[in-house]
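Risk register update: the risk of archive-format incompatibility is retired. Evidence:
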Amino acid sequence: MSSKYETVVGLEVHTELKTKSKIFCGCTTEFGGDQNTHVCPVCLGLPGAMPVLNKQVVEFAIKVGLALNCEILNFNKFDRKNYYYPDLPKNYQTSQYDLPICLNGHLDIEVNGETKRIGITRIHMEEDAGKLVHSGNTISDSKSSNVDYNRTGVPLLEIVSEPDIRSGAEARAYVEKLRSILQYLEVSDGRMEEGSLRGDCNVSVRLRGTKEFGTRTETKNVNSLTAIQKVVEYEALRQAKLIEAGGKVDQETRTWDDAQGITIGMRKKDEENDYRYFPEPDLVPIVITDEKIEEVRRALPELQDAKIERFVSEYGLSREDATTLTVSRKTADFLDATVKAGADAKTVANWMLGDLSKMINESGLTFAESKVSPENLAGMIALIDKGTISGKIAKKVIVSMWESGKDADTIVKEEGLVQITDTGAIEEIVKQVIANNPQPVADFKGGNGKAIGFLVGQVMKESKGRANPGMVNELLQKYLKD
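Archived output:
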């Protein structure tokens, strides 16, 4: 996009809450299931059915609000948001309007090494709508659509940002950080591919240096971090080109076509007064005491930003490694548990970011599901520290631990992997390697110091990786200088 224009983005992020039952009835919130089987008269909006608020939804909302530095309103209420769409069985959505549960928060993100604060206008509770099942890839290329009401009534939080985001990269970083916080709080699984977390991207452009906002479009239900970034970048470019060509941006709702990498217009964007909000008559207002708010605050876990600072100051990790190891709470907990079991934090981080991470990724698991427990990893590191095994042998041991579930000590004994530290035994191998490799020996004596690396490798090969590397180097240096 031309530097003449500035992108302005506000995001409305919807997250499904990880409660066992829906927001106003006892139906399960479990993902999947046969279509239209997780329903009852309440979530289907049948005449005479009365809603009852799920208490855990309120507690989860307070948690998220506190974690995002919001003011929690002691008095808030539900409202009816009236509109017609096939996936909305009541023809209105029970949501919050003028008195939401949370107001005026913020979230700090980091992009290209710079920290930026994104304001959060509000967080409100609401019920989810159903899901349209299209015959084609998207609504625009479908000949028919069916509706599945299983998702209707699943509790949602809508987190509305200020229009402080200025690029696709910032939009992505904001949603990624938000998802991490929700997962840390254990209020949502954050699985964007299942629709548990999705974003509505409000995008406009304006001449750089001006204060007045341009006409915005809203691209609905974007369900991946990559897609959110692409939507912002594409839509900003589309609008800038349209304006440059003498056209006018229409305020409309659009959808993202991932296959084509474009947004597609759907309908005119509704204004707030089109929804004819009014207080929900079937639900009493919600009163939250200061004592309750403080009770929830005290129970908040240590969040990612605090963990990063602790891992840097207490464990001595680099900020980059600390950030990587704290994106997931379960990953951070794994590191903490391994350190608690007696291992050095930097060594643990190296194994987690290296061999163990590779095995976890290849298996499609998480650190919470790792087949090598924190205690077993700490045990293996202790054997390295004691000189029982070398780092090279440890790479074999950790694979055996993963495959067998056994601890390192057992594997080392069963497979005869104890490191050779007997000087006499290593000396014999060193002499044999020197005798069998006259050219590298001559190269070393001729001033090529790197040639010793080949000889070290040959000694380790002959000892099947069991010779103490330090002793190998020392003995080679001694005999090569004779």
